[in-house]
Amino acid sequence: MKEVTCEEMQILGLSVRTNNADEMKVETAKIGALHGAFQQQVTVNYENGAHLFGVYYGYESDHTGDFSVLVGSEESALTMTPAENKASLDTVALCADKYLVFSGTGEMPQVVIDVWGDIWRYFSGESSQGKPKYQRAFTTDFERYTSANSVDVYIAIL
After folding, report:
1. What is the reported pTM?
2. CATH 3.20.80.10 fits 2-156, yes or no
């Protein structure tokens, strides 16, 4: 885990509104299907260092409330299938802010689930580090997929 400051970046993609309670149940989970829909409709050009992002934003309150999730990439990295165009995609700005970065490597999607488990334990004070040094801002958090088996999760902090 490390603290970083990020510059604002625009991400285009597909989005849904959900909450953690719904994501814990197979019959109401939306994020996995969102990733699948994005991969069917959009191609990300990884050759020039592009990354896939999962952006969490529009928090109703904290981790218990509703939030929006957008799966996407930077506009310059996207190629659409013939039936689609970039105008049909949603856009979200990754806030220029301070973040804590949690990283993981392993089989997808389990590595993402494991990293989020580390995040929840850290901010709840249940990790080996005890009471967290930082507090979540609940503004914009994001996953940045750095390869087929690794992810960095950026959590906005106060």
Report:
1. 0.90
2. yes
